[in-house]
Amino acid sequence: MHGKLSGALCTSCHATWEAPLEMGRDTPCPDCHALTARPDIVWFGEIPHHLDAIADHLASADLFVSIGTSGQVYPAAAFVEDANARNIPTLEMSLEPTAISSQFDEVRLGPATQVVPQWVAEILS
Question: Of 11, 39, 43, 80, which alpha carbon lies 20 to 30 A from 4's?
Fold first, then answer.
């Protein structure tokens, strides 16, 4: 959804490739050779990657879990609304309550390094 820092993206032809260890203004696109390469990450104000695939996965989910997000950046902040509209159970795991905590069926607060393993252990037991 947010891209990957180890990837590169051409803003001219939208090709993606594994980023070199060092990338600068003189890094050409391997497809179109334009000097418009940048990290393959989504900046604020840009449309996230793979939204159609995410919507498909959400539509077929048995459970929606949000881990470690503020719940304030859209479109991701609306995923819980989509899950609720489909009667998919929802769980939020966050360090502290978020602006959308009330939309979740269950909220577990604490560091992800603690609450996620505890939840996984419960599921596996």
Answer: 80
Q: Residue 103's beta-bridge partner residues?
A: none
Q: 0.90 cut: is pTM over it?
A: no
Q: How far apart are the first and last CA of the chain?
A: 31
pLDDT higher for 103 or 44? 103
Give the CA radius of gyration of the chain.
Answer: 18
- φ, ψ for residue 90 (rounded to 5)? -130, 145
pLDDT tens profile 98-123: 999 999 999 999 999 999 999 999 99
Please give the Cα distance from 90 to 106 (Å, whole number): 7
Distance between CA atoms of residues 2 and 116, nearest Å = 22
